[in-house]
């Protein structure tokens, strides 16, 4: 289970209440959203550095990321993020469902996502410039669905994951693991790849 070594004074962006398994799942998705929507500042790095992993492949990746956070600085991570996802013209990776599923941005997967978000009553965050099919945005929504932050039926978790994440997120995270510019973000890719595999297996077994 994803846990902190010490009390963070309430500043950690982590779910803390609910069923223990759901709390752990939501925390993993929330962690991915936290580091993929933007770069962590010094306080954010402190939060990540306080995370404990375990002996599982997913837990070892969390431990690797925690160790990275203890010796990283925000400016270096910001440069890495820019190289990976923004670049001059474009970054090494394009973290959008439409691109991974069709080869183009702003395509049918984004329209399908927007229809589901409207149906669920989930509104776009004010000031957000990225399309909603950004991997960081999808991770945050997945965390919210698991944690019960939205007034929707629990079955929507499976629908959202299988429709908007499972078809492409595993490939994105594998690409992130292998990206030339990835250092801090390499274990992020590993965490994401394992989490997608675990969730896909769980939802298949529950079907």
The CATH topology is: TorD-like
- Low-confidence segments, given as residue ranges, are 3-13
Largest sheet: 2 strands, antiparallel
Report the top-level CATH class.
Answer: Mainly Alpha
- Count the domains: 1
What Rg do the Cα atoms give?
16 Å
Helix content: 55-70%
Terminal CA distance reads 24 Å
Number of helices: 10
Structural class: mainly alpha
Shape: globular
The CATH architecture assignment turns out to be Orthogonal Bundle
Encode the helix/strand succession as letters. Answer: EHHEHHHHHHHH
Q: Provide the CATH superfamily.
A: TorD-like
How many beta-strand elements? 2
Oligomeric form: single chain
Report mean pLDDT, rounded to a whole number.
91
**How large a portion of the residues is in β-strands, by DSSP E?**
under 5%
What is the strand arrangement across the widest sheet?
Answer: 1-2
